[in-house]
Amino acid sequence: MNSDSHLPRKIGSLNCLCHNDSPSSSLFGETQCNLLGYDSPVASIGDDKLPPLEHHRTCSLVQLESAEPRVLEQFPLECPRQERRRRLVSWGAMELQHNHISNNNINSSSASFEISSSKPRRNHRQTRHKSLQFEDNLLSNEANPRLIYIGDPRRTNDKYEFSGNEIRTSKYTIITFLPKNLFIQFHRVAYLYFLAIAALNQLPPLAVFGRTVSLFPLLFVLCVTAIKDGYEDWRRHRSDRNENNRVAHVHQNGEFRLKEWKKIQAGEVVKICADESIPCDMVLLGSSDPSGLAYIQTMNLDGESNLKTRYARQETALAVSEECLISGLIRCEQPNRNIYEFTANMEFSGQRFPLSQSNIVLRGCQLKNTQWIIGVVVYAGQETKAMMNSAASPSKRSKLESYMNRETLWLSVFLFVMCLVVAAGMGLWLLRHKEELDTLPYYRKIYFTNGKDKLKRYKYYGIPMETFFSFLSSIIVFQIMIPISLYITMELVRLGQSYFMIEDRDMCDSSSGSRFQCRSLNINEDLGQIRYVFSDKTGTLTENKMEFQRASVYGKNYGRSLLTVDPLLEKNIAATDRRRWKLKSEVAVDSELMELLHKDVIGDERIAAHEFFLTLAACNTVIPILDHGTSSSCIKGELHEEVKAIDYQGESPDEQALVAAASAYGYTLFERTSGHIVIDVNGEKLRLDVLGLHEFDSVRKRMSVVIRFPDGAVKVLVKGADTSMFSILADDTEMGDHIRNATQSHLTEYSSQGLRTLVVAARDLTDAELEMWQCRYEDASTSLTDRVMKLRQTAAFIECNLKLLGATAIEDKLQDGVPEAIEALRQAGIKVWVLTGDKQETAISIGLSCMLLTSDMQQIIINGNSEDECRNLLADAKSKYGVKSLTGRNQNLNSKSNAETDYLDIPVDMKLSNVSGWNAGMKDGISRVPLALIIDGNSLVYILEKKDMESELFDLATSCRVVLCCRVAPLQKAGIVDLIKSRIDDLTLAIGDGANDVSMIQMADVGVGICGQEGRQAVMASDFAMGQFRFLKRLLLVHGHWNYQRVGYLVLYNFYRNAVFVLMLFWYILCTAFSTTSALTDWSSVFYSVIYTSIPTIVVGILDKDLSHKTLLRYPKLYGAGHRQEAYNLRLFWITMIDTLWQSLVLFYIPLFTYRESSIDIWSMGSLWTIAVVVLVNMHLAMDIQRWEIFTHVAVWGSIFITYACMVVLDSIPVFPNYWTIYHLANSPTYWLTILLIIVVALLPRFLFKVVHQIFWPSDIQIAREAEILRKHNYLGSKQDQGAG
């Protein structure tokens, strides 16, 4: 019997005409089948006339009318109907935004949805967040499909509208590199500022510095960045070149010849051999397997290591196996980013049949366990799904950097005021001395030399213009008030910090071999200020390694006593001639259930158990992998024939666990093709024809398979979530109600134990139902528009009146260290929210086991089924627990102190100075019962739709210590993150491991991906990636704290370092008649921030540690320093500026008073000021360094040495005006005493302030550091005592 005998066209339903005859047909839309005849030529796009119909079959009008209302009744979409388009934050539509069934405008005529429709439909697609557009169902318009002529690339691309297969991931070419790179760099406003400064300095009236020297800082920064960008792009070019020059076998002139990838075109037929990569997106035509089956690995595409099955249509597979010439037409959707969907149909040998995701292999995948495949190219080059998904994740900017821009604005104000003072002073001075300008020894306005210019103006433009030029010249002189070097310094510091995070062995996962990854260098310091953590559950908090634990079969509970041995062998039930299967991993089985399955009696319970495990083995997409090596086993003297090892590969760990469990109970799936599966049922081979498969989706929340048994009986086997299954069960007998109630009770028990549950059901299909379903299935699966919706509606036709068989419970164990990590984060003042798609009971159980929920918490449960109910539940909860709105609480939630952020006593053996200050932040006896909010996805659908309800949810959620969201869709996860992110300035972090977490990860301020079992899509979209959730504790509490403290100090220090230099010049200009002249050489001014003082800041920003990692992990509440912004805030900025003002006055006036009676020239004074300011800022830095390393010593003291060396070199060049000045100064003791006096006087107020503040108002970190030092001294003292003893 042909394996394809079950296909719809074999029973004459391919060309059936299902009239739209029911008033309720809005559910099914236009369900008429295609009218194209097999033997007719291809209809042109947009034709109103169709070829004559040669073979057709009309579905029964009575059948449609009788079946339609039942389908409407039994097909409850899980989401409520919406009467208007959702707003941006309406994430909860569960992917129904563009599938509003109630709004479908159905034409009552016989117009079908064949591809030659004359009136294209409008594509109502709502606007979504940029990072979420990947979720859209990007089906092309039916009137504009892509036409691929198999084996005829010239005809396919006759209009040259399709791209070639050459890819380019690089940004630049040789021609575009310079303009494009400069354009990108000048997006930074500071660069434009310095470009304007350099341009002003080129004008003769404003040439304060040498024209070449003024360009040096900007050119240095631009060149460094350009070299880095150029090197990265060169690597991309090299990678592109290697990729494009790879070769594949392409069918040309009747044979397969090697051809470079970049020359492959759409429409060409390509042959791929085992372990080779797929060069472009291809529709599978055939494979080495006679049934057209192929195995591919998609690791390069989505990171998943499990093998996937792809099928060639039996029609083309047969032609390939017979080596026939293949020609035909493929109509497919336009290129899009959705790698999980493909909508097309093929016309081949006068037949039309559908193509789906299972028929296409994508670029970047590898062929595995298959000798060869042959396919036709449909998308090439930049139009492949892999390349369309290669866009980088949204760029993020750190919170501290945004604050830095605020302070930069203040510095700009200071700069403007100083320039205004100088300009005003210049104007007043010129007015006062306007009569003697030509007689002053240092000023003149006309030429006195003989010649043609005698008595002409000498660079004098009148008092108003001189005042204006003085203002512009002042900007040039004071330009480094805005620290251009800070941008380069921060990038280098972040790079160094990332290196040490990557090399941290305590964040390496030894089990998977995955290391920590820094995928973004812009937000290292944000790790030290996280207030909210949004976490996925499955695979993030849990291992995502499923183990079958419990089962409810026909209302009876099994699994309380499990055995890991094989009971069949133990009890000698199996016959000696039965084939045995050995699973890769042991599965525990229930002996009582095993006995039931092997009873000879025929009863309802026995039949239900048989169908239950048959459903587990058949209703899936799992691939059996056989180990052809066999072995024999001898138990109690009896020899069993052979034991074959079998393993299962699947896209879902849940499915793998269920199929493995079915095998352990004697129902072993060991063969799968596109048309049938073979199951070993207790040694007897059972071949089942697969008539159709409706895969799981987030709306139906179930999957079903239609199978034909050898005796001709047809069944639909269904498994899915309990919320979607119980509503489609048959209501028939009292016994059925008993089984339903018992099963629901068991499900509640399983969920309370933290197990993942599924409900299993089945029913028989009559011939009439089968024929009607096949007609609709064929029609929906060949549709180019709304295929997903139509298939969903077709599935609803058979997924009704089901017989309940039972339920399964799978355990997903917690990862190591999760409870400890969550407790540490809570003590650090971080709120952990869990967003999961699991049942509420399961999520609550996991929350209790991982210490997210505690017994003392008051649980607030929001499970609403309507808008009014949700509104009432929120209002009741707020009033009951006294939750105030945002306006009623502190306006700035950042400044409020959570209960978790109270100070802790740090025990040390010796008495600390003023330990009582440690508890200074305790609240005044406020004791509130901690709240935990538990809300389901259905409620979020209503709440996220209304602004007022969103605000109420926000008020309630932020008042709770824990929030647990259950049954949430991927877009709802992003909506919850946006709920917090859009209302307050607290930083958010999202962590997940699967593709369903990508939207949440990209929405949060910081995204962390887990290298888990669900592929690497979350990793590829994240800012940081790691192997286990427990590493988040060290990432935030240790590295986050260090990075925040370092970068915060780095920014303040850079502001101080440049401001003290500029103020010193400002005081000098005030003493030189506002002339904007400088005592420092041009090179000294340029080298100050680029060479003299830059290296110490970088080294300290990378290596300095205020506390050891042991202390930070022991006392998580120290992390609260980031929440309170202790390392960088506006108050610290103003204190720093006041200190800078004092130090600049000391720096300028002490040398001035010291040498006021001497004959020292101005260049000697400039040399002294240069050395003094470099030594001063380095000593300032040395006062604040917490931990000295060898590199720190080299950087700080080496910087002073380098400054002296540069001064010696510059002063040794005769053409410079400061020639030999350093040699005269260094011989005088006054020079060295002056520098020492400057350092002492300038830093004395700062030193006294630090001492007084640490004694009377110590911070948490200062007390912890003191305790750490005392603990270390005690340890060393005890070691010495032991050595003396």
TrEMBL record:
Organism: Carpinus fangiana
Major location (coarse): membrane
Bilayer topology term: Multi-pass membrane protein
Catalytic-site annotation from UniProt: D536
Family: Belongs to the cation transport ATPase (P-type) (TC 3.A.3) family. Type IV subfamily.
Record protein name field: Phospholipid-transporting ATPase
Gene3D superfamilies referenced in this protein's UniProt entry, alphabetically: Calcium-transporting ATPase, cytoplasmic domain N, Calcium-transporting ATPase, cytoplasmic transduction domain A, HAD superfamily/HAD-like
Domain P-type ATPase N-terminal residues, every copy: 148-213
